[in-house]
């Protein structure tokens, strides 16, 4: 992320560092030629890149800056294309024109609607032919009234505004417009009976396709509570590779019992939770603890008073100090990083004439807060140390908590790279990095590290062929533990022979295209493409590398339950409540699958976990 990154997304753009804002912030000037512009920051990028016909090119811009802006504009263009493609795909599902065409139990009021061609504006207007007899002014007023009534429905029901971006919301009006006059809206009874039942059937059809991949990729069962083992039997034991849960003592004991009674299944703790606990332990170190306490005092004072907050924003160019993130501990350290970046702005604020003339300048507690920023000799070096010693771990936490990629093949390497980066950030001074290392090693070896993590490291082609890759005793031992647990005797024997081809780049593994695509393809795609000559090894590698390290999906499922099971709805029959959770979560799963399918793979950036990782 850009060095000046903040919660204010409009200030993150790469072009801001080449602009000079006018005092009223209505215009900005080019840093190179001082040409004044208004509008969005894109106009400045186009001015610097010199690619837009309607905007004058900067005569003094440096070539590398122009190239940087060209790349930023191209990236924005690709994002727009991707968003449009994603929306079209999701709309196809929402309107029933995709794979889910054969919907059962359609409402008798709706009938079969004919498909129609779509244009670029169809997301916003109906393609229904206009009636020439209607007065356009009357129609405009009628459209305004419709919008007002939709707004009234949103406001009275407390519906978030971003629901209007939901493709299923957009598809409602298209289908109603196509149906024409006389459509009767479904009643509450219809929504909770046949409509919900039909959607469960549609979701089941979608999942039937998804279930076909279980045998190839394997399954992770995620749980935040435990009842019995029926879910394993439902998925089928041969399809389950791991159970992933919290790492509380009750889950550890349950995990041990599973591994004893289910000889082919692993229990794995939730990686993000372990790393979060690690950050909590580091936060108890005296230097970290004292620094966080002082930083919280400054932040609480600034954000607790509107006038002070406005003054701070005027000095930081609207950049925030608070940086909400995955957990409260990452939020604390990212907020420290923001304070560090705004050091000069904060010092200028507390030294300004506006501050000195304010009522806050004379109050005792506020004077103490000002003293922390201006006169505390330790606070700024301590903040710098805390950020440098923890930022690599925050980067790891963000990687493993993401649902975008399977991180089983990366976690082992990410932890070791983070330790190396912390050592570098601490200037190789042992008394600075040793306390952090001690806590990392304790959590990693005692709680988090499992044979699957190490086997994933060995099987990841992005890492296996690097110079720094090391096959030590731990790697070999963990690999063979996984082989013995997950494969039968005949498969183990064949795979052991096939490992030579992988280790020595023989056969398809050594062809030039396989070598060139190691960093381009995802690890699982690479094995599918080039592992045809080693079927047993390839099957094993795909199952390991496809695994998640996070139970975020499970937690979001539980959040879905809490959202639906409100006090107003807690009288729902249990089966209907389950159906609502089932439909909502799996609909979101379908949307995420569509987005993934349309996105180009972006490998985990294991080389970019540094002290400024945001």
Automatic annotation (TrEMBL):
Q: Which UniProt keywords apply?
A: DNA-binding, Metal-binding, Nucleus, Zinc, Zinc-finger
InterPro entries the UniProt entry points to: DUF659 (IPR007021), HATC_C_dom (IPR008906), RNaseH-like_sf (IPR012337), Znf_BED (IPR003656)
Determine if Transit peptide is one of this entry's keywords.
Answer: no
Q: GO CC annotation: what is one?
A: nucleus
Gene Ontology molecular function, alphabetical: DNA binding; protein dimerization activity; zinc ion binding
Q: Which PANTHER family does the record cross-reference, listed alphabetically?
A: OS05G0256350 PROTEIN (PTHR32166:SF74), OSJNBA0013A04.12 PROTEIN (PTHR32166)
Record's protein name = BED-type domain-containing protein
Please spell out the taxonomic lineage of the organism that makes this protein.
Eukaryota, Viridiplantae, Streptophyta, Embryophyta, Tracheophyta
Please name the gene that encodes this protein.
LOC107831102
């Amino acid at each position: 992320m850009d060095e000046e990154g903040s919660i204010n997304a409009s200030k993150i753009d790469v072009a801001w560092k080449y602009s000079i804002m006018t005092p009223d912030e209505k215009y900005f000037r080019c840093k190179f030629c001082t040409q004044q512009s208004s509008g969005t920051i894109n106009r400045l990028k186009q001015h610097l890149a010199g690619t837009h016909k309607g905007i004058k090119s900067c005569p003094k811009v440096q070539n590398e800056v122009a190239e940087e802006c060209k790349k930023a504009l191209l990236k924005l263009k690709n994002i727009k294309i991707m968003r449009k493609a994603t929306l079209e795909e999701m709309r196809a599902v929402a309107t029933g024109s995709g794979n889910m065409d054969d919907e059962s139990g359609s409402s008798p009021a709706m009938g079969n609607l004919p498909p129609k061609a779509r244009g670029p504006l169809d997301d916003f207007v109906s393609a229904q032919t206009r009636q020439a007899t209607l007065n356009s002014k009357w129609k405009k007023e009628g459209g305004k009234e419709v919008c007002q009534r939709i707004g009234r429905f949103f406001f009275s029901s407390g519906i978030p505004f971003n629901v209007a971006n939901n493709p299923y919301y957009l598809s409602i009006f298209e289908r109603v417009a196509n149906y024409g006059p006389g459509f009767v809206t479904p009643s509450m009874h219809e929504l909770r009976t046949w409509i919900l039942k039909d959607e469960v059937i549609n979701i089941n059809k979608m999942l039937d396709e998804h279930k076909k991949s279980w045998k190839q990729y394997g399954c992770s069962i995620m749980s935040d509570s435990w009842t019995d083992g029926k879910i394993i039997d439902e998925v089928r034991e041969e399809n389950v590779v791991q159970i992933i849960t919290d790492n509380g003592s009750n889950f550890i004991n349950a995990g041990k019992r599973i591994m004893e009674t289910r000889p082919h299944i692993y229990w794995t703790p939730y990686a993000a939770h372990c790393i979060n606990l690690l950050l909590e332990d580091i936060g108890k170190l005296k230097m970290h603890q004292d620094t966080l306490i002082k930083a919280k005092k400054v932040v609480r004072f600034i954000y607790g008073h509107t006038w002070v907050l406005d003054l701070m924003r005027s000095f930081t160019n609207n950049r925030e100090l608070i940086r909400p993130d995955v957990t409260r501990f990452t939020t604390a350290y990212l907020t420290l990083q923001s304070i560090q970046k705004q050091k000069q702005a904060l010092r200028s604020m507390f030294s300004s004439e506006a501050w000195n003339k304010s009522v806050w300048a004379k109050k005792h507690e506020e004077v103490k807060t000002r003293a922390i920023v201006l006169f505390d000799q330790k606070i700024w070096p301590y903040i710098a140390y805390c950020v440098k010693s923890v930022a690599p771990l925050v980067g790891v936490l963000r990687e493993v908590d993401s649902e975008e990629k399977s991180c089983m093949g990366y976690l082992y390497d990410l932890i070791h790279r983070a330790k190396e980066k912390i050592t570098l950030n601490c200037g190789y001074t042992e008394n600075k990095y040793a306390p952090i290392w001690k806590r990392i090693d304790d959590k990693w070896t005692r709680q988090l590290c499992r044979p699957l993590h190490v086997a994933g490291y060995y099987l990841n082609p992005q890492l296996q062929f690097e110079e720094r890759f090391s096959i030590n005793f731990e790697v070999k031992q963990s690999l063979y533990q996984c082989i013995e647990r997950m494969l039968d005797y005949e498969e183990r024997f064949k795979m052991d022979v096939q490992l030579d081809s992988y280790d020595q780049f023989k056969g398809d593994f050594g062809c030039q295209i396989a070598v060139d695509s190691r960093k381009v393809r995802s690890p699982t795609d690479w094995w599918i493409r080039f592992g045809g000559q080693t079927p047993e090894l390839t099957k094993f590698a795909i199952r390991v590398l496809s695994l998640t390290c996070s139970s975020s999906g499970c937690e979001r499922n539980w959040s879905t339950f809490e959202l639906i099971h409100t006090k107003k709805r807690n009288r729902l029959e249990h089966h209907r409540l389950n159906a609502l959770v089932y439909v909502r979560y799996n609909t979101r799963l379908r949307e995420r699958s569509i987005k993934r399918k349309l996105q180009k793979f972006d490998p985990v950036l294991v080389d970019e976990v540094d002290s400024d990782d945001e």
